[in-house]
Amino acid sequence: MADNQYLLKSDQGKIVKAYDGVSYTVFFFGPLPMLFFRRDFPGIILLLISVLTVIGFCVIVGLIRGYYPHPLDHFVGFCLVLAWSFFYNGWHRKRLLNEGYQVIEKQDISRRVLVL
Q1: In the chain, domain spans
Q2: pTM, full prediction
Q3: Which residue, of 72, 91, 98, 110, is most buried by count of CB atoms within 10 Å of its CB?
């Protein structure tokens, strides 16, 4: 779960939320949160390039061995998605900071309690 939520503000006044920690939305939905919620086109392109590279590698290895699909192909794809879910939030936040966004507020959202 995301540990910290950052509110970032650009020079033009645009405010963006950025998170730290594991991105469960990327784990379960792949590039869709990047496209619809964050408008993060470099993230989508890198995710798709990495997925296509792994798929191509698995196909080439399968053709060399003489059979396709191999049971480990699914495991390799799962490991790729798992790595992206751990990597994405921090990478997105750091990239926004490098683009000129500044931290307005930092909230610890791991200790929030829902009170009804």
Answers
A1: 22-99
A2: 0.73
A3: 91
